[in-house]
Structure formats: structure tokens, C-alpha cells
Specification:
By secondary structure, this protein is an alpha/beta fold. About 40% of the residues lie in helices and about 20% in strands. Strands 3-2-1-4-5-7-6 form a seven-stranded mixed sheet, with helices on both faces.
Length: about 270
């Protein structure tokens, strides 16, 4: 039986729901966050989990990552997505693989940085999520960084979106995602030190997506000034104490502890 991801990958434009200005906003906010931490990472290989946006979307991070002269390995569990991503980025600095995040075809301690943008939150169970964290830890070298974003379960709009995804009313399924404190405990127990956290993308995800799709169908590119105004207005929520509730994604940076290094007390 075909999975939702296989159905999406078979669509010529599976990211139809993502307005071009929203895709740019998502890309730019993630890049600002990534670049704040990249200087803290050791030199070496960067591993990117899932290649969906790199195969299909304008929110791909790969062109900017390539500008930093980094060798990138990316993987996705769907071979069709891997082939599409390779076709978009045929450069020698990019090696795409078909693989499962819970069983990576990489040597232990071979990766300097893992970039995981909203990948692990599509697993259906906590056990699968934990297995993926353990596998990421295995391939990271001591002192290496994990840059991970997850759906924000504290956002009130996350829960109706998740219910809709379970009955097939959204393009993709939402799975298990932990809150910030639960994620911190899991990472620390695995062998990471949590270095910092940010809250990204403050659009009211369910409402804004429907609104922007409707505006684009009705007005085409003439709707762009209105969409840009709304995006700038929503982004002001990031300055408020309520940003933990308005954010669509929780962005966490964690470092794999060195051999013999003890866990920092919390």
C-alpha cells in the first residue's frame, strides 16, 4: 500500500501548499539559525536528514550550505526523492543516499554536524524517535553538533493539524514530537549537551497556509505584497514572551559529549 510520502513524491508539485514567500521565509529563518551555530562545529562532513524540500521545494537549504564549502551527505528513505534531489544538485560536494534514519550507512563518529530540519517528528512513536536519536549520536564524532528542528507541540494549532493529518486531510502525516524539556532530557540521556534553543516561524500554520493558498489562487502574484505584510506581522510574535506558543518549530542545538566527559548538571 502506498504511503502518504510516496503519494506526495509522485506529485509533480508536492509542495503546492507552500507559498513562495513562505518558502523563502522558512529557508531564511532556518539558515540564520544554522549559521549561528556552524562556527561552533568541528570541521568535517555535514549530514542532512531527509531530502524532501531539496527534491521539490523552494525552502531547500542546500545551495547556501554549499556556499560554505561543506561536503554534504543527505539521505531520504524514498529512492525517488533521492534521485530528484540529486538531479537538482548534481555537484560533487553532495552525496545523496537512500537510507532510514534509524540505520544509517555511515561509520561511527564520521560526521561533524547533523542538520535535521523537521524529520524526526514524522515518526509515529517515541520508540522510533529515540532510535533515530541514538543512531545520530552514533555517527556524530565527539564534539560534533546536532541541529534539530521539530514541530512545536506547545502551539495550540499543532493539535488540530495533527488530527487532520491522521485522517488524511493534510498532504503529509505528523508524528511524535516532544516538548522542549522532554527533548532536553532525551538528548542528555543519550550523550548530548544541549547548547541552545530558538523558536522559528510564527505564522498561524493551519490558518495561514489555507489563507495564502486561497490568495494565490484568487490573485496570483498580485497577492504577494499582502502575503509579505502578513508574514512580517506574524514574525513580530517572535519578540514576545509567548513565542514558545506561537512558534511552528522548536530549534535545538546539542553537542555530542567528548569521551570521558560527564553530563553537565541541570
Amino acid at each position: 500500500m502506498e504511503t502518504p510520502w510516496e503519494r506526495m513524491a509522485g506529485n509533480d508539485a508536492p509542495s503546492w501548499y507552500l507559498h513562495p514567500l513562505v518558502a523563502r521565509q522558512k529557508r531564511d529563518s532556518h539558515l540564520r539559525w544554522v549559521r549561528r551555530w556552524r562556527s561552533s562545529a568541528p570541521d568535517g562532513l555535514l549530514l542532512k536528514t531527509d531530502l524532501f524540500e531539496d527534491a521539490f521545494g523552494d525552502d531547500t537549504l542546500l545551495p547556501a550550505v554549499f556556499e560554505d564549502s561543506v561536503c554534504v551527505v543527505g539521505f531520504d528513505f524514498l529512492p525517488s526523492v533521492v534521485r530528484r534531489a540529486r538531479g537538482r544538485f548534481p555537484g560533487a560536494a553532495f552525496l545523496p543516499l537512500a537510507a532510514d534514519c534509524r540505520a544509517l550507512p555511515l561509520a561511527s563518529a564520521s560526521v561533524a554536524t547533523v542538520l535535521s530540519p523537521s524529520t524526526l517528528d514524522h515518526f509515529q512513536s517515541r520508540v522510533e524517535f529515540d532510535d533515530a536519536i541514538d543512531e545520530i549520536l552514533r555517527v556524530l564524532q565527539p564534539g560534533g553538533l546536532l541541529l534539530i528542528t521539530l514541530d512545536n507541540p506547545r502551539n495550540p494549532l499543532y493539535w488540530p493539524l495533527r488530527v487532520m493529518s491522521r485522517v488524511g486531510w493534510t498532504p503529509f502525516p505528523l508524528g511524535f514530537t516532544p516538548g522542549p524539556s522532554v527533548l532536553d532530557r532525551r538528548l542528555q540521556a543519550a550523550g548530548f549537551e544541549v547548547l541552545g534553543r530558538e523558536f522559528l516561524i510564527h505564522n498561524p500554520r493551519l490558518i495561514s497556509t489555507a489563507l495564502f493558498v486561497a490568495l494565490e489562487k484568487l490573485l496570483g502574484r498580485r497577492a504577494d505584497p499582502l502575503v509579505a505584510f502578513l508574514l512580517a506581522s506574524f514574525e513580530r510574535l517572535s519578540r514576545l514572551p509567548t513565542r514558545v506558543l506561537s512558534a511552528s518549530f522548536i530549534a535545538t542545538c546539542a553537542r555530542k559529549r567528548e569521551h570521558g566527559e560527564t553530563r553537565t548538571p541541570t
